[in-house]
Amino acid sequence: MFHQLLKVRYLAIVIVVASILHSVAFLLLGARIAVEAYAHVWSDPSALGMSRPGVELLHSLDFLFVSLVLMVLALGIAKLFFLNQSAKDLEELPGWLRIQSLSELKVMLWETILTTLLIVGLSDLIRDLFTPLAWTALVLPAAILLLAMSLFFIRKA
Question: How many whole angstroms separate alpha carbon 92 and alpha carbon 74?
Fold first, then answer.
C-alpha cells in the first residue's frame, strides 16, 4: 500500500512542467516589454517624456522576477521529489539548490518573492509619483514589511 502512495509523487511532474512553462511565458513577456521600451529609447529620444520607457523597463523586470520565482519553485520541487540525495548528486548542484526539505524550499521562495515584491513596489511607486497618491499606496510596502519581519522571526527561531 505504501509503495502505491509513493507513486503519487509523480504528480509533482505536473507542477514542475506547468511552473517551467509559466516561467518561460513570463520570461518572454518581460523580454518583449523590454525590447519595446528600448525601441522607444532608440527610435525617438525627444518623445521620452511621453512614453516613459523607464517605467516599462521596471515592468519588464517585474515579469522577469516572477519568471525567476516560478523557475526556483520548479527546480526546487524537482530536486526534492525526483533527485537522489547522494553526495555526488548534491555536489553537482548549485549552492542555492542544495535544499533538503520543503521548509528550506519555502524560505528560499519567501526570499525570492520578497525581492520580487520589492521590485514590483518600486515600479508601482515610480509610476504613481506622476499622480496624486492615496492611502492605498501604502498597502504593498506594508505587506513587504510584514513579510520581511515574519521571515526575520522565522529565521531567528
Answer: 18
